[in-house]
């Protein structure tokens, strides 16, 4: 008699489901977190400055989740808006919508789901922060379409990313002080810098398909203009330090940031696509270094309760 019992094999997840889940991950750019880092660092600057080194833990969690959700939502909407453009750009033709991996209506459904999560997170904040969240959401929706009409879409991107700064101040302190708007302006300048490098990598394709950018607007003066913006950003960071009464560690971080900016200029000197894209990716270290300077200041110069 055969005593071997037949056991049912454990259920297996359909390969098609796994593949589609991977498409959604790529659509949200979760496999390429550079955008999360670029949005995260100014948010962290603001949280630490507003909380004088001790941000509220609950607010901190809400903003960290919000960074990931809003960046993901922005990427989904951007690819939906560019669904008829991306197939003609070398770097973007393999994106999920452009390659047919995700249908446009699927992308819109995902965007709505992410937007609902973002609304839930914003509902946990106070009224001033919620008002700013609404404005930020509007800029996030507008940005993917604005590059068809204006030559300065990078400023709109900077405002959308940077609004997390006054939001953080409002959530932490109930108001948006002058320091909040100075940090906000600095975040905008930085976004124009790194996104212009990004646009320089796509300049030839963008000119062919009619997409506008600061890289096209600045033309041969691109590196010169970026250099001026880098100096302006460094100056703004110094003013932030003076206004927030930050110390030596913070100013040391500005010096390191300035050295990195000079290196970025050297890397992009020939305007080669790979080099410009590398500079874009490397820019997040500037935000990280500034944040480290802020943290070190409050760690070794704690504010009295």
What does this molecule look like?
There is one protein chain. The chain has 305 residues and is an all-alpha fold. It has a single domain (24-300), classed as Orthogonal Bundle (Tetracycline Repressor, domain 2), CATH 1.10.357.140. The protein contains 14 helices and no strands. The chain has helices at residues 15-27, 34-50, 57-81, 104-122, 127-146, 153-162, 164-173, 178-201, 203-209, 214-218, 222-243, 248-267, 273-282, 284-300. The longest helix is centred in the first third of the chain and has 25 residues, at 57-81. It is globular.
How does the SSE layout of this entry go?
Elements lengths: L14 H13 L6 H17 L6 H25 L22 H19 L4 H20 L6 H10 L1 H10 L4 H24 L1 H7 L4 H5 L3 H22 L4 H20 L5 H10 L1 H17 L5
Helix pairs in contact: 2-3, 2-7, 2-8, 2-14, 3-4, 3-5, 5-6, 5-7, 6-8, 7-8, 8-11, 8-13, 11-12, 12-14
* Low-pLDDT runs: 1-5
User: For the terminal residues, how far apart are their CA atoms?
Assistant: 80 Å
Coarse structural class = mainly alpha
Radius of gyration: 22 Å
* Discrete helix count: 14
Number of domains: 1
The main sheet comes to: none
Short description:
The protein is mainly alpha-helical. It has helices at residues 15-27, 34-50, 57-81, 104-122, 127-146, 153-162, 164-173, 178-201, 203-209, 214-218, 222-243, 248-267, 273-282, 284-300.
